[in-house]
Amino acid sequence: MATAREDSLGRQAGREAPSPSVPPAPSTTPDLSEPAAAGRPPELGPAALRALAHPLRIRILDLLPSHGPLTASKLGEIVGESSGSTSYHLRQLAKHGLVREVEGKGTARERWWERTPGGFSISSAGKDSPASRQTAEAVNIEFLRLRHERVMAFVRAGQNADNDTLEAWMGVTTFFTSNKWATPEQMKAVVEAWDRFIAEHIDPLSGQAGAPGALPFEVHFDAFPTVDPEGNPL
After folding, report:
1. Is 230 a member of any domain?
2. 10, 32, 108, 134: least buried by Cβ within 10 Å?
3. Which residue ranges does the record annotate as region Disordered (predicted)?
4. Which CATH number covers residue 178?
Protein backbone atom coordinates (compact mmCIF):
# COMPACT_ATOMS: atom_id res chain seq x y z
CA MET A 1 0.00 0.00 0.00
CA ALA A 2 2.74 2.44 0.84
CA THR A 3 4.56 4.59 -1.68
CA ALA A 4 7.82 6.21 -0.67
CA ARG A 5 9.80 8.86 -2.44
CA GLU A 6 13.56 9.04 -2.15
CA ASP A 7 15.48 11.86 -3.75
CA SER A 8 19.00 13.04 -3.36
CA LEU A 9 17.78 16.23 -1.73
CA GLY A 10 15.92 14.69 1.11
CA ARG A 11 11.59 14.63 1.01
CA GLN A 12 3.39 13.48 10.34
CA ALA A 13 0.21 14.13 10.85
CA GLY A 14 -1.72 15.81 17.16
CA ARG A 15 -1.31 19.20 17.71
CA GLU A 16 -0.57 21.83 15.16
CA ALA A 17 2.17 23.74 16.88
CA PRO A 18 5.73 23.39 15.56
CA SER A 19 8.18 22.56 18.30
CA PRO A 20 11.74 23.88 18.36
CA SER A 21 14.38 21.23 18.46
CA VAL A 22 18.09 20.87 18.98
CA PRO A 23 21.14 20.98 16.73
CA PRO A 24 21.90 17.92 14.63
CA ALA A 25 24.87 15.68 14.98
CA PRO A 26 27.56 16.89 12.56
CA SER A 27 28.04 15.30 9.15
CA THR A 28 30.97 15.64 6.80
CA THR A 29 29.67 17.37 3.67
CA PRO A 30 26.19 18.25 2.40
CA ASP A 31 24.29 16.81 -0.53
CA LEU A 32 25.92 17.46 -3.90
CA SER A 33 22.99 16.42 -6.03
CA GLU A 34 21.14 18.33 -8.69
CA PRO A 35 17.52 19.45 -8.27
CA ALA A 36 14.93 16.72 -8.74
CA ALA A 37 12.05 17.26 -11.11
CA ALA A 38 8.78 18.44 -9.57
CA GLY A 39 6.27 15.71 -8.80
CA ARG A 40 6.82 12.06 -8.05
CA PRO A 41 10.07 10.71 -9.49
CA PRO A 42 10.18 7.49 -11.52
CA GLU A 43 9.40 4.26 -9.72
CA LEU A 44 12.15 1.68 -9.37
CA GLY A 45 11.76 -1.28 -11.70
CA PRO A 46 11.73 -4.87 -10.43
CA ALA A 47 15.44 -5.53 -11.08
CA ALA A 48 16.56 -2.29 -9.37
CA LEU A 49 14.25 -2.95 -6.44
CA ARG A 50 15.66 -6.45 -5.97
CA ALA A 51 19.19 -5.05 -6.13
CA LEU A 52 18.31 -2.51 -3.45
CA ALA A 53 16.69 -5.07 -1.15
CA HIS A 54 19.76 -5.44 1.07
CA PRO A 55 20.11 -3.51 4.35
CA LEU A 56 23.72 -2.49 3.68
CA ARG A 57 22.93 -1.21 0.18
CA ILE A 58 20.03 0.81 1.54
CA ARG A 59 22.30 2.27 4.21
CA ILE A 60 24.96 3.17 1.63
CA LEU A 61 22.35 4.85 -0.54
CA ASP A 62 21.00 6.63 2.52
CA LEU A 63 24.43 7.89 3.64
CA LEU A 64 25.68 9.40 0.39
CA PRO A 65 23.35 12.42 0.17
CA SER A 66 24.23 13.74 3.64
CA HIS A 67 27.93 12.81 3.62
CA GLY A 68 28.70 13.71 0.02
CA PRO A 69 30.93 11.61 -2.24
CA LEU A 70 32.69 8.79 -0.42
CA THR A 71 35.16 6.06 -1.26
CA ALA A 72 34.47 2.42 -0.55
CA SER A 73 37.09 2.60 2.21
CA LYS A 74 35.43 5.55 3.94
CA LEU A 75 32.03 3.94 3.62
CA GLY A 76 33.50 0.79 5.15
CA GLU A 77 34.71 2.80 8.16
CA ILE A 78 31.29 4.36 8.65
CA VAL A 79 29.24 1.16 8.36
CA GLY A 80 31.76 -1.20 9.94
CA GLU A 81 32.42 -3.29 6.85
CA SER A 82 35.48 -4.02 4.75
CA SER A 83 36.20 -1.86 1.73
CA GLY A 84 35.85 -4.98 -0.40
CA SER A 85 32.30 -5.45 0.83
CA THR A 86 31.26 -1.82 0.31
CA SER A 87 32.97 -1.75 -3.10
CA TYR A 88 30.94 -4.79 -4.20
CA HIS A 89 27.67 -3.27 -3.04
CA LEU A 90 28.48 0.06 -4.70
CA ARG A 91 29.04 -1.71 -8.01
CA GLN A 92 25.69 -3.47 -7.68
CA LEU A 93 23.95 -0.17 -7.00
CA ALA A 94 25.75 1.43 -9.94
CA LYS A 95 24.51 -1.28 -12.30
CA HIS A 96 20.99 0.01 -11.72
CA GLY A 97 21.82 3.71 -11.84
CA LEU A 98 21.38 4.33 -8.12
CA VAL A 99 24.96 5.55 -7.56
CA ARG A 100 27.69 6.72 -9.90
CA GLU A 101 31.40 7.42 -9.86
CA VAL A 102 32.44 11.05 -9.40
CA GLU A 103 34.02 12.25 -12.62
CA GLY A 104 37.56 13.57 -12.37
CA LYS A 105 38.06 12.48 -8.78
CA GLY A 106 39.99 9.55 -7.41
CA THR A 107 42.14 6.92 -9.08
CA ALA A 108 41.68 3.45 -10.49
CA ARG A 109 42.41 2.07 -7.02
CA GLU A 110 40.42 4.60 -4.99
CA ARG A 111 37.18 5.59 -6.66
CA TRP A 112 34.72 8.13 -5.28
CA TRP A 113 31.00 7.47 -5.39
CA GLU A 114 27.92 9.66 -5.12
CA ARG A 115 24.16 9.20 -5.22
CA THR A 116 22.87 9.60 -8.76
CA PRO A 117 21.11 13.00 -9.03
CA GLY A 118 17.36 13.01 -9.15
CA GLY A 119 15.28 10.53 -7.24
CA PHE A 120 13.10 7.47 -7.32
CA SER A 121 9.91 6.19 -5.74
CA ILE A 122 9.06 2.77 -4.36
CA SER A 123 5.47 1.53 -4.27
CA SER A 124 3.84 -1.74 -3.34
CA ALA A 125 0.88 -0.86 -5.56
CA GLY A 126 0.70 -2.53 -8.96
CA LYS A 127 3.21 -5.24 -8.15
CA ASP A 128 2.50 -8.53 -9.91
CA SER A 129 3.17 -10.84 -6.96
CA PRO A 130 3.01 -10.88 -3.15
CA ALA A 131 6.80 -11.31 -3.10
CA SER A 132 7.30 -8.10 -5.10
CA ARG A 133 4.97 -6.19 -2.78
CA GLN A 134 6.80 -7.55 0.26
CA THR A 135 10.14 -6.50 -1.22
CA ALA A 136 8.86 -2.95 -1.81
CA GLU A 137 7.50 -2.75 1.73
CA ALA A 138 10.75 -4.10 3.22
CA VAL A 139 12.84 -1.50 1.38
CA ASN A 140 10.49 1.32 2.42
CA ILE A 141 10.53 0.16 6.05
CA GLU A 142 14.34 0.12 6.10
CA PHE A 143 14.55 3.65 4.68
CA LEU A 144 12.07 4.81 7.34
CA ARG A 145 14.02 3.05 10.09
CA LEU A 146 17.21 4.83 9.06
CA ARG A 147 15.36 8.13 8.92
CA HIS A 148 14.06 7.57 12.46
CA GLU A 149 17.63 6.85 13.62
CA ARG A 150 18.74 10.25 12.30
CA VAL A 151 15.87 12.02 14.03
CA MET A 152 16.78 10.40 17.34
CA ALA A 153 20.47 11.23 16.87
CA PHE A 154 19.43 14.86 16.29
CA VAL A 155 17.40 14.92 19.51
CA ARG A 156 20.16 13.26 21.55
CA ALA A 157 22.74 15.74 20.25
CA GLY A 158 20.94 18.52 22.13
CA GLN A 159 21.88 16.98 25.47
CA ASN A 160 25.50 18.04 25.02
CA ALA A 161 24.98 21.22 22.98
CA ASP A 162 25.92 24.60 24.43
CA ASN A 163 23.37 27.40 24.80
CA ASP A 164 24.68 29.40 21.84
CA THR A 165 24.26 26.41 19.55
CA LEU A 166 20.79 25.68 20.89
CA GLU A 167 19.68 29.27 20.38
CA ALA A 168 21.11 29.36 16.86
CA TRP A 169 19.04 26.34 15.85
CA MET A 170 15.91 27.08 17.90
CA GLY A 171 14.04 28.90 15.17
CA VAL A 172 15.08 26.81 12.18
CA THR A 173 14.26 23.27 13.29
CA THR A 174 10.84 21.78 13.93
CA PHE A 175 8.86 18.57 14.18
CA PHE A 176 5.28 19.06 12.99
CA THR A 177 2.29 16.75 13.31
CA SER A 178 -1.27 17.43 12.22
CA ASN A 179 -4.23 15.05 12.20
CA LYS A 180 -7.12 15.92 9.87
CA TRP A 181 -9.95 14.22 8.01
CA ALA A 182 -9.80 14.44 4.22
CA THR A 183 -10.90 12.68 1.07
CA PRO A 184 -8.29 10.98 -1.14
CA GLU A 185 -8.70 13.86 -3.60
CA GLN A 186 -7.96 16.42 -0.89
CA MET A 187 -4.93 14.45 0.28
CA LYS A 188 -3.71 14.31 -3.31
CA ALA A 189 -3.97 18.11 -3.49
CA VAL A 190 -1.84 18.46 -0.35
CA VAL A 191 0.85 16.19 -1.79
CA GLU A 192 0.83 18.09 -5.08
CA ALA A 193 1.19 21.37 -3.18
CA TRP A 194 4.18 19.89 -1.37
CA ASP A 195 5.74 18.92 -4.70
CA ARG A 196 5.39 22.53 -5.83
CA PHE A 197 6.97 23.70 -2.57
CA ILE A 198 9.93 21.38 -3.18
CA ALA A 199 10.45 22.77 -6.66
CA GLU A 200 10.25 26.37 -5.44
CA HIS A 201 12.08 26.30 -2.11
CA ILE A 202 14.10 23.09 -1.68
CA ASP A 203 15.45 22.20 -5.11
CA PRO A 204 17.21 25.61 -5.49
CA LEU A 205 19.33 24.76 -2.43
CA SER A 206 21.19 22.06 -4.37
CA GLY A 207 24.88 22.48 -5.07
CA GLN A 208 25.69 24.43 -1.90
CA ALA A 209 28.25 22.00 -0.53
CA GLY A 210 31.10 23.97 0.96
CA ALA A 211 29.26 27.30 0.88
CA PRO A 212 30.06 29.50 3.92
CA GLY A 213 27.70 28.70 6.78
CA ALA A 214 25.96 25.88 4.92
CA LEU A 215 25.30 22.60 6.74
CA PRO A 216 23.56 19.43 5.57
CA PHE A 217 19.91 19.39 6.57
CA GLU A 218 16.99 17.05 6.03
CA VAL A 219 13.28 17.70 5.45
CA HIS A 220 10.52 15.16 6.09
CA PHE A 221 6.94 15.31 4.84
CA ASP A 222 4.55 12.42 5.44
CA ALA A 223 0.93 12.18 4.36
CA PHE A 224 -0.89 8.90 4.93
CA PRO A 225 -4.23 7.49 6.16
CA THR A 226 -4.27 6.35 9.77
CA VAL A 227 -6.70 3.51 9.07
CA ASP A 228 -6.47 0.42 6.87
CA PRO A 229 -8.69 -0.14 3.77
CA GLU A 230 -11.42 -1.61 6.04
CA GLY A 231 -11.37 1.45 8.32
CA ASN A 232 -9.52 -0.19 11.20
CA PRO A 233 -7.02 2.02 13.07
CA LEU A 234 -3.40 1.36 12.15
Report:
1. no
2. 108
3. 1-44
4. 1.10.10.10
- Asked if 25 contacts 154 with a C-beta cutoff of 8 angstroms, the reply is yes
* Distance separating alpha carbons of residues 130 and 79, to the nearest angstrom: 31
Residue 175 lies in a domain: yes
Q: How far apart are CA 72 and CA 108, in angstroms?
A: 12
Q: For residue 24, with 0-12 CB atoms within 10 Å meaning exposed, 13-18 middle and 19 or more buried, which class applies?
A: buried
Per DSSP, the chain holds a count of helices (H) and strands (E) of 7, 5
pLDDT tens by residue, 166-185 = 887 777 888 889 999 999 99
Q: With respect to residue 219, please indicate whether it lies within any of the assigned structural domains.
A: no
Alpha-carbon span 57 to 92, nearest angstrom: 9
What was the pLDDT predicted at 98? 95
Domain assignment present for 222: no
Arithmetic mean of pLDDT over the chain: 81
* 3-state secondary structure at position 11: coil
Q: Roughly how many angstroms between the first and final C-alpha of the chain, as a whole number?
A: 13
Give the distance from CA 208 to its chain's centroid: 18
Look up the domain containing 71 and give its range. 3-205
Residues in the chain: 234
Per-residue confidence (pLDDT) for residue 18, from 0 to 100 = 34
Instruction: Report how many domains make up the chain.
Output: 1
